[in-house]
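Notes taken during the Thursday session

The instructor put the following on the board and asked us to keep it in front of us for the whole hour. The protein is Aldo/keto reductase. We were told not to look anything up and to reason only from what is written here. First, the residues (276 in total):
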Amino acid sequence: MGWTKASAVELLNGERMPRLGLGVWRAKSGAETENAVRAALAAGYRAIDTASLYGNEADVGRAIRDSGIARDKLFVTSKVWNDEQGYDETLRAFYRSKDRLGIGAVDLYLVHWPVPGKYKDTYRALERLYDEGEVRAIGVSNFKIHHLEDLMGACRIKPMVNQVELHPLLTQKPLLDFLRREGIQPEAWRPLMQGRLDLPLLAELAGKHGKTPAQIVIRWHLQQEIVVIPKSVRAARIEENADVFDFALSDDDMARIDGLNEDRRFGMDPDLVGGA
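Then, after some discussion, the predicted structure tokens were revealed:
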């Protein structure tokens, strides 16, 4: 398809978001996160995904500032955590995140989880931040269809991204169909199933294409027009995860991977997120 590491999707508001990024969930604050981000940028990644919960926003910001890469060439995402939600609370949480990052405007800011009774007020705060130019795009994370329908019945600005757990064992086809109809960009977290890649089909396809099982899964995401943010703190693995633009899965390959679906979550079910 002629994609490269620098290729991007276009969001509802015209902003461009790289198709492949580095996730830093559970990357330790300090050298581990900084070195992972540096390795990713050196390998050609131009998107980094963090969150206030992760405790490593300052490290992400430091690595970006030290990289020498022009700020407008990078795409940085952060998220407001559950106990920070609510209109005023979210505004305060955002400015804490912005200060920790130290990179100016944030490219994408997300509601991390749909906290009942809070997420609509939280999203109103995101709309204000967007109106004021503090963020270039806004969206949500871990929202199911019913959460999105509820939010879109009240919001002024449609979410531009929905970042959800998505992988071969949790293909989320009904949600993907909904997002595509609405023009909301899907983004996958935990795309590599926490390393649970020892599936015979993935081994077979890896052999067929001369790739690793992880590369097969990342390519499967990309060919569905899903933005993907695999997490690693190892430079070699970060480079390997980006080496997915020189081959293509066939329609049959894609369908067989789809057939692995078990509706299996490794993370929390968004319907079980408690109110605050």
